[in-house]
Amino acid sequence: MRMSAWIRQHLAALRALLVLTAITGIIYPAAVLGVSQLPGLKDKADGSLIKQDGKVVGSSLIGQAFTDGKGTPLTQYFQTRPSNAAWSGDDASPDGYNALNSSFGNMGPESTVDTLDPENPKNDKLSLLSTVCARSLAVGRLEGVDGSRPYCTPGGVGAVLSVMGPRDSHGLVTHPTQVISVNEACSIDPKNPTKPFLDAYEGVKVECAKRGEDYSAGQIVPIRGDASSDTPVPTDAVTASASGLDPQISPEYAAIQVARVAKARNVSADQIKAVVDAHTTGRALGFMGERTVNVVELNYDLDSKYPSKG
Q1: What burial class does residue 239 get, using C-beta atoms within 10 Å of its C-beta: 0-12 exposed, 13-18 middle, 19+ buried?
Q2: Mind listing the pLDDT tens digit for each residue in 19-54?
Q3: Which of 170, 161, 288, 286 is nearest to 224 (CA)?
Q4: 158, 142 contact by CB (below 8 A)
Q5: What residues contact 82, with CB distance under 8 A and at least 6 apart?
Q6: How far is the CA of 150 from the CAs of 104, 129, 156, 183, 274, in angstroms?
Q7: Contact at 8 Å (CB) between 87 and 73?
Q8: Separation between Cα atoms, residue 42 and residue 131, nearest integer Å
Q9: Of 168, 175, 152, nearest to 226 (Cα)?
C-alpha cells in the first residue's frame, strides 16, 4: 500500500529536521567547543579571566571600579574611566560596570544646560558639560593636577549663560536685559548667597539660577574662560566609553596616576611605571586606534608585585 504524498512530504521534512538539528545543534557546537579548548585559545574562549590566589577576580575584557563602594577612589589603585553601566534598583551603585546594564550616556556636545530640581539638589540632572567639569575637578584633586577646563566654572559646572533681550534677524540678542548663569543655583542660605562665575556680561549683572525656572527663552551662551585647553586631565578620565565597560585608559591618564599609586604602595614611581609599560598595548596592526593601558590587569599585577599595606 503506497503512502500518500502528504505523508511522504512530512516524513522527509522530519528527517531533514533531525539531520539539521544534529549538525547545527550538536556536531557544530561540539566542534567549536573542542577547537576553543586548544592551547592558546582556551583562555580567551573562557572569557579572558583573571585569577588571584586561585580565585577568579575579573576579566581583562570588562572594566571594574576600584573604589570603596561609595564611589571614593582607592588610592592604591589606578582608576578606570567613568562608566554609564550603573547598577540599578536595590543594587544601585555609583560605580557602574554592570555587564547587564551596558549603555551609553546619550548626550552630545549641545548638552550644556543642567536641569535643577526645585526641591532636592541630589535630583539635579547634569548636562554632559557639567558632568565633564565635575569629573575633571575631582580627578585633578585626586591626582594633584589642575582639573580646570575651558567652559567650566571654578565650582565644577558648565559656564553657561542664558541671555535675555531683544534679538536681531539671526536670533542673536542685541541688547541684553537680563543674564542668568543657568547651571549655578541660587543658595537657599541668604547669609551665603551664590556668586556667579562671571560678574557681568556686556554690562549686565549676571544672576544665579533659581531652581525649577525655565531659562530656555534666552540665548544660551557658553563662556570659554581662561583655562587652558591643554589640560593635564585627559578626555578618557572624564567621559565614559560607548559600552560603559571598557577596561582600558590612555597612557596619559595612567601617567598622572603613577605618583599617587607609588606613594600608596610605598614604592618608587619608576617601579610603578615599569608595570604600567608592561600593560600598555600599541595600536592595532600598528595604525588603528590608540595606545591603551588595561587597568584591570595592571591593578591585579600590582597587587601581586607590590601589595598595599593600607
Answers
A1: middle
A2: 999 899 998 988 887 777 777 666 666 667 777 777
A3: 161
A4: no
A5: 96, 135, 238, 239, 240
A6: 24, 10, 11, 15, 33
A7: no
A8: 41
A9: 152
